[in-house]
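Protein in question kept underneath.
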Amino acid sequence: MNCPRTSNQERAKWRTECRDKLANYIHSQLGLTILPADVKLITKPEDVYQWSILTPVRAPLFNKQLSKHSTGAYIDLCNGVGVHFKAVQGQGAADYELETQHTTTTTALEKSKEHPSSDAITFQSSAKEWRDKFNAEVAIREALEIEMIGIQGEKADLVTEMQVLRKTEATQTHELDKVREVLLMTSRILQERALKASEDSQKITQAAISLKLGSNPCM
């Protein structure tokens, strides 16, 4: 009669071996990495793998959870994998591949950040150099724009000042024209008065001569 402890140890050994063998088979057959502890006999449509029964007599093995089987069932599973049944991709395989690709890409990116290649270092150096040049050109352009704004402001002030000067000049010219006109009128009046005074002087002189001649008839 077998000792219960020895029987349980034997069953545990075959259960572990069965899980390892099925996990390795799934990986070699489908490229899926499944932990031995996660291997299932009863699968769902959305799982990443399914079991396809090739020998109908072995179908009852997949009606019970793997952990519930006996030692003999574990031996049958180990001997029958790839012969009496095989693993096929389930509906979740596509999501698994996308997740695996994402994980692989993320890992590669993290490694590249931790240990950048010489090309990456050269690219980063060139990118920094171009960024510095760009920032310098932007700073120069901003300085020129500020200077241009100042020049435009000065130009506007000069235009305003020129307009004021022209307006002042026009006003002064108008006033000078008025003064010139007044001077011309004054000069004309003075000339007329001088002419009249000259005529009056001549008349007075003639009158005086006439009076003198009238007072001395014998002469």
About this structure: Residues 4-114 form one domain. The chain has a mean pLDDT of 83. Residues 21 and 152 are 84 Å apart (CA to CA).
